[in-house]
Amino acid sequence: MNWIDDVAENVFQNYRNRKIVIWGYSSASKGIAAVLRKSYNLTTEFFIEEKADNIAGRAVRALNEVDDKSNEYYIVIPMDCNNDKKADKLRGGGVYAC
Fold this sequence. Notes:
Layout: H1 3-14, E1 19-23, H2 27-40, E2 44-49, E3 60-62, E4 73-76, H3 85-92
Parallel strand pairs: 1-2, 1-4, 2-3
């Protein structure tokens, strides 16, 4: 199993029937969406981006669309926990994301 499969499994176990949103529109994000669809029959509602230049219609939306909506959306932040510095920063802040 690779890290994308691990992330998808974690999403399946924790999304609690919320709409799934993936942060970033990258090959990793699209890979996670594909595994969620194929392995768990889950649909990614949309992707979110921080930079306005990357926003593209209904598929990629602004980050602020999910503000204060944790009861409605489950946000996936793709990262390889073994190789990504973001994971260390999140763990250091008291949040374990992997």
